[in-house]
Amino acid sequence: MLNKPVGHVFTAEPHEACAPSQRLHLILLGVENVARSCQFYQALGWQKSPTGNDGFVKFNLGGYALCLIARDALALDAGFTAPAGTGFAKQTGADFSGIALIYLARRAEEVPQILAKAVEAGGTLIKPATRTHWGVAGYFKDPDGHLFEVDYEDAWVFDAGHHLVVDQVN
What does pTM read for this prediction? Predict the structure, then answer.
């Protein structure tokens, strides 16, 4: 899958749908000013992970991470036309909350399969599994409108129990 060009869309047949393990890896907050938000969390006493950067800040929460990214960049990545709104509208892609919960897949092939399982379970596909600069990712909303990303990237490091090792990258 990673040999496909950026923007290539992947699908899974219904019989290929698979459930993610029962965990989340990232809480992604779309913020107006990444540096200002980073300073806020640091002022709370939180230590910034050395594996982030100025546009994508990570705080290790013990097996998962709170991440900060520009709100407009998150909206664009998820396929929303504007970075405004409450995010709780149930219509497909109509409203953007600025928050995404992220499940990191173990293999690129799992991304379309997990998205298919989410749709099968009653979720709404927002963005199909798509080749990105970093890997393969797609988005769905749960029945209450909460945004989830399913992502695979070679850079993430996990322990034996599939918990994220926040302060390491491949």
Answer: 0.73
